[in-house]
Amino acid sequence: MNRMQVLRYVKAQYGVDGQYKWRRFPDDCVLVCPVTGKWFALLISRNPDVTHLTEDRRQNFLEIHYGEGATKLRQQGVFNAPTRMADGSWVSIRLDDQTPVAAVKEALDHAFDRARKTQVVQEKEHLITVLPFGDEQDGFSDQPLPKPAHFQPKQQLKMPEPLRKMRAKYDYTLPPLKGRNQNFYQQGKLMADYEDDYEYLGDFRHFFPTYHDMTVGQLRGYFTWRTKLRKGKIEKAPTSFAYVYIYELLNQIGVSSVQDGYQKLASFPRQYANYADEQMLKYLAQWRKDYVVYYQMGDQEKQAEFGDEIKIDHAYEVLKNVDDTKGDEVYQALISLASYHLDKCPLMKNNPAVVYRIVQLTWANLLKESQVNIMQNLLGWRGEVQVHLFGNAVFYDRQPVRTTQYKIDDAREYVCEWGKWRRQTFTPVKGRKQNINHLLHEIDRLIRLATHEGRPLKPQDVPDYELAAVKKAIQQYREEQLIAHRPKLDLSHANLQKIRDDASETQESLLTEEERQAEDAEATQDEYEEAAANAVASQSTISLTKSADTAAVFEPSFADETDDDEDQPQLSNDESYFLAHLLKGQPWQDYLRDHHLMASILADSINEKMMEVIGDTVIEFDDQGQPQIVEDYRPDIEDLLKAGESHAQD
């Protein structure tokens, strides 16, 4: 049973509305007997432990003035002691899905009947009159009884003249959907500068709310709240009030320019952060993007709203052609589309440039693969989808037949033809993140095998052509290193002459006087050149040998046999229990509580150990803070746990 059900019940049963009396606690209301003015119940909305909660997550309590039997009622276990009322004749109960409806209604009936009867007795005591003996009745006459307060008609709330004009402007001849949007815009323009000062303590909830859906009191309450908001005074309001204000900004109502409207939309989540719910913030984020596109704003707003999309588009553009791209850019492009990083690769710690180059060569090899289009198979393709700007909002399109386009970047563009919008962009292939994760994992694994460094990793299920591309890239890098370390011979005319002179001088210094005299006069200069060239070649052979030694760590050695003991993460008993129960979907909370363990600490420890084997995080926490297994790695974890059990039995 929730608070709205309580309010509906007392309204239908006793004709009583909740009275909101406290500015500090705007959601609290008291239920008063209309005949006697006695309080018989109190609705409280609180959460003392957590702030900034949405309406749905606040805790609601009902306190009932039960009377003398309150203590006995509390002993039955359904009701508790009051938290707000100090009088012991009150009882309290929390309102949620488990609240017993029948018990609450019975207690309310008792409290209301008690409050009503108490005053009736008092009225009878006041009406006792001593009459004189005899038949003389002079001075007395029949008088009509006064009507109870709840039968008196309510005083009609005064409607200000601007509100009357606004209501009169509503055009009922328009079709329903278009009419709602157009009427909202026209009425909003009329009320753009209107201010009010009216204390409204009620609620207003409506799907796609507009001015036309509000009563006079709700309208005055909304414009009073909007007046305060524009002056920097932020107060909690019914959720539908906030949506109406956002709709006004989307429609350029109450703003001086397109830029002013955008700034107000961008600042509203910060202003209203204490009261806005998650769904409102999601809608607002999408509507800001639509606002930038529809009003075709500049690069600053484009970057602010589409920054994440621009990064992804840039990654696609980089990966389309890697010939003129640096290795680190290709690496950054790939990891921006995945969750697997090569930070744990031993070679990354010592020489990241080598890893970048191998990743670049791998991707270049995949692009040249003739059997498959790697861009479409692994990443996605450029496509076009129809979009509806300002979906789920009340928005009046003043340019219903315009034709235009708005370019986000080279890969993303919005096109409008006769009022119909389309978005042209890369459409990601299903499982893109997992596919790239597996490719990066195999690059990491094969680099470790080729360099004989680091803990061996478990192979992932990838196509043969991807494995071939990685192995070929490692071989290509080794060959590049061999070529780069070869000494370069300068065979220019000037250098040859220097070689001749040096050889001649060396030979001259080694000859004795007799040998000089006996020297063959017919010796040619070609013999000296040949001797010098042989000396240089000898030096080159030595240098190449050293280069081969330097690059020997990249000698391909792709045997996949690994030590089973080396391949097993060393999990503690607590970690194994936690991981196994998460994997099977079994409860683990009692075990952690009994052993005084924290789920977050266990998860971090498991992720750290699994990083060495799988190369990525295997446990993540959802929006509710609950741990869960990353589905991509569920088969790997199952295999590891089975292998660990077999090893323990052996």
Overview of this structure, please?
The structure is a single chain. With 650 residues, this protein is α+β, with helices and mostly antiparallel strands. Helix content is 49%, strand content 9%. The chain has 23 helices and ten strands. The protein has helices at 3-14, 70-75, 101-126, 161-168, 176-190, 216-230, 239-250, 258-271, 278-294, 299-320, 327-335, 346-350, 352-367, 374-379, 432-451, 464-485, 493-510, 513-517, 525-550, 573-584, 589-594, 599-611, 634-649; strands at 29-32, 39-46, 59-65, 90-95, 380-387, 404-407, 413-417, 420-428, 619-621, 627-629. The strands form three sheets. The chain has a four-stranded antiparallel sheet with strand order 1-2-3-4. It has a four-stranded antiparallel sheet with strand order 5-8-7-6. Strands 9-10 form a two-stranded antiparallel sheet. A hairpin with a 6-residue loop joins β1 (29-32) and β2 (39-46). α13 (352-367) packs across α16 (464-485). The longest helix has 26 residues, at 101-126. The chain is flat and about 150 Å long. Mean pLDDT is 81; it is low at 49-56, 119-137, 149-154, 535-553 and 559-566.
